[in-house]
Zinc metalloproteinase
Amino acid sequence: MPRSIFLLVGSILFFSTLVNCGKRIQSDDSSLAIGGLESHGRVKRQMMNLATKWNGGQINYFFTGVFEPIEKNKLMLAAMEYISNRTCIKFVENQNANQRLNILLSRYDNFFMKRHLDLFFSAAGCDSKLGAPGTRSNPSGQEVLNYGGCRRMMSSGVHELSHSLGSIHEHARPDRDNYLIVNETEVRRSGGAAQMNTTPYGMTTLYVPFDHGSCMMYSNVMWGAPLMTTKDPAYERTLGHRRVTFYDMERINKFYNCGCAVNLECQNGGYTSPGDCKKCNCPSGYFGKLCNERRGFDSFELNATSTWQSKKIPFQYTFTGDNYGHFHSTYAYITAPANKEIEVKIDKMENITCMYGCNFAGIEVKTKEDKRITSPLLCCEDQTIAKKSFVSKNNPTIVELFSRDPTGPSAVTFSYRYVDPIRFG
């Protein structure tokens, strides 16, 4: 085995070897199936050539296997736009570049081949090599990103492109055992050991906090039976969610040293966007140039009192120009007097599919003091958190109702009030 050097940063693992072993890391889109059972095969090998960056933060790409009735290339292009709008990473279509990415949309060149070969083979797969082609001393060559077998979601493209940029799965972080309980027996039985390995702290620098809602996280039930459970039971349905988090983009920015010449005075945990230095990257629920505004539509302002009030909010996916194949959210902002906490309880959910990952529609009551991190998601009436009240120190407390393209109308009824903080003497 060749001698190798590892460097793991945040949930990004960078690995340079003395030879090109060409191994790959598979996708984790199984969470999008109800019950979590994945249909495509598993790649059981670890990753190689992980340390190489894309020169100048530019991914030169081209599409092959372009026959695809649903025009999956549009989803990949939307994923590229999502990343480039929030980072310094740029995407340029150029199949002759010295360092390039071949995005394989389908293994078929025409409908006849697709119709007949589908009887014997799966689609093109859903996986990407980790890191850019080449080595640190010679960053050149070509890699293949298999996208034909990925789920029809923009965030599947973000997931695979993040692998190519250097990001591994969130559950592979060396601190994952602080948050997850891994079922080692089931991992071995399912052949997923290579996908569930971690890297020692001695080779690690963490850029961002562990985020249960990261788009790089596997579902609890990646291959059927539970691979892992959350130490905090409130997060039982959050693993495998695919909205793409604030920290998913921030760690890419930090690894590629993205930044702006002048930093804005961003609020609510935001920072100056390397994708557009005239505005901030904002946590979900915060808008405007400096992350200090509400959105002008699909937004509700609620004032809490000391007695319970009830609110029913309908919501559904709406195309807004930048969320093709992705999610749309409706926000409720609950405000209370100073030095009060806000209590929320969910009374009724309508037309919300219960599933691991909550990837059709769901609710996030933002109770975490870190406004950038994902709070527990709710989409099932039997969840532990569905039977309890949410108590938040955030003022306002944001209730985010999200729905994916395409999903029909949903509705949530919840009660809210303010309470005095619990004090310990």
Remarks:
- The domain at 294-419 is CATH 2.60.120.290 (Jelly Rolls).
